Amino acid sequence: xxxxxxxxxxxxxxxxxxxxxxxxxxxxxxxxxxxxxxxxxxxxxxxxxxxxxxxxxxxxxxxxxxxxxxxxxxxxxxxxxxxxxxxxxxxxxxxxxxxxxxxxxxxxxxxxxxxxxxxxxxxxxxxxxxxxxxxxxxxxxxxxxxxxxxxxxxxxxxxxxxxxxxxxxxxxxxxxxxxxxxxxxxxxxxxxxxxxxxxxxxxxxxxxxxxxxxxxxxxxxxxxxxxxxxxxxxxxxxxxxxxxxxxxxxxxxxxxxxxxxxxxxxxxxxxxxxxxxxxxxxxxxxxxxxxxxxxxxxxxxxxxxxxxxxxxxxxxxxxxxxxxxxxxxxxxxxxxxxxxxxxxxxxxxxxxxxxxxxxxxxxx
Length: 364
Ligand SMILES: [Zn+2]
Fold this sequence. Notes:
It is a single chain. The protein is α/β, with parallel strands linked by helices and 364 residues long. It folds into two domains: 2-49 and 322-362, Urease, subunit C, domain 1; 53-316, TIM Barrel, CATH 3.20.20.140. The chain has helices at 63-71, 85-88, 113-118, 132-142, 164-176, 188-194, 219-228, 234-241, 249-261, 286-297, 302-308, 311-316; strands at 2-9, 20-27, 30-32, 40-43, 47-51, 53-58, 74-79, 99-102, 106-107, 147-150, 181-184, 199-201, 214-216, 265-266, 333-337, 350-355, 358-362. The longest helix is centred in the middle third of the chain and has 13 residues, at 164-176. The chain starts with a strand and ends with a strand. The model has no long low-confidence stretch (mean pLDDT 92). The structure holds zinc ion. Zinc ion (ZN) binds at residues 57, 59, 80, 271. Zinc ion (ZN) binds next to loops.
């Protein structure tokens, strides 16, 4: 039980631009409306309290990765595909670390580079639209929280792609079971196909339009790929991600700028991973703060970037118990020095992190 006193609150809501000074009370892992008797006092003056951050795109295989996420204020993490679900699935919903959700396996085409080069089993291939419902039902049986579809571009060397009809059938099959869909797409052509999904993850790093309405651009990953391709990891990166040879991070920023201006919903996600076959591996936790800064570089206001990491992904993914600071919600909280609603760089000035009311990090 504790009360954070006199603190500026960014409540994560879509309607509150001006933070207010208040006391926030926590008891039993939840935010409560009234001070619990005997509550410990946490000094909030000069600080801002935020909902714990939600990383909408990670690949997790170790508890230490969830601990690192929580240490940096990321209290919820959405795994977007694991070649080893036996390692990933038991990491869901552990105390004291980031709360994990999982897609289990991604849907890919037979012959996909995901299978041939990234260690995913061959049985996860979806031959055609007629196989979509059985594939989705198999993931549900394994415990998938949502469905991930990797829409690869067959024109890139070393891979094959799901047909638009198969992608659409997978989305419909997931919706028939009440599950949300997230589609991976890196090139212009695949972004158009992927736009039938509820969320598109990644943005094109060519100067092109996208039809996505909800996007998790993973700018940290896009920048990492642009930095590494053409250098020592060039061939491996091209083989692994099947991306066009002409890449420019300015195009990724421009894609987000245009999507945001057109009214698309933007979600913060990093693609953090420790996968040796990936072209780049954003660090767990710290990369979320880089992503927030890159979203501001792409034209979001600091408040919009913070929403993209809190209330907006909570709403999109149906995580009704989190993403805002309000009585009744999980006490997933991030207390920082300064005011990130005006200076996004303040998000790394972390004083305290709680996951469901349990201290995950406290500065000296
Ligand atoms: Zn990923």
